[in-house]
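ARCHIVE CARD
Drawer: 12
Card no.: 0347
Subject: one protein chain, sequence and derived structure
Cross-reference: see card 0346
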Amino acid sequence: MKKFYSLFFMLATVFAMNAQKQVFEKPTLKNDIKEHKTIAILPFFVKISFKKPPKNFSAEGNKAEEIKMSKSIQSSMYTYLLRKGDKYSVGFQDVDKTNIMLRKAGVIEKLEDMTKDEIAKILGVDAVISGSFETEQTKSEAGAIATAVLLGGFGGKTGSGSLTMMLHNGSDGELLWRFFKTMDDNISTSTDDIVESMMRKVSRNFPYTK
């Protein structure tokens, strides 16, 4: 009986881990990316929701925060990839240049209505990285701090979220690779923390790792 429960617990743990991280890789990925030289990172789609809206909630303010976080994740990811640049077989387009080119083309607010090959053509790159971050806040920051103090620790959970990262081929817009991860937020979480956490998980699977 003890062995049965041990096995059940192990399988449940493995299932939970798999539910938290999912990786898709196109069968022809290695052949598709062998000529790639420059990759662009697009602003991430961000959605911030609340289990219970805070006092003085503003839809306009929330939207502004989503836009701010969208570009912050984009910038954090670019910084991370530059920092680890010697590990990758490609270069990454400066995100300021990416956003300026998208703005000049009049499409920076229409990216969801465009194919990835259309975007890659505007940017002059071989592939594009895009993604989304969705989070539901379940506890206020003040509440998280209070809980942390009561428990004798710090960094109480304030919500949960999921982050998706995708790589599309620039020539035909085909999805080459996709990474999905769920995560908990706490009062110390920043976009740098989010990207760092995700990229540590991605590192073994990232297509351009040498």
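Annotation on reverse: Helices lie at 2-20, 29-33, 59-83, 95-104, 116-123, 141-151, 191-202. Confidence is low (pLDDT under 50) at residues 1-19, 141-157.
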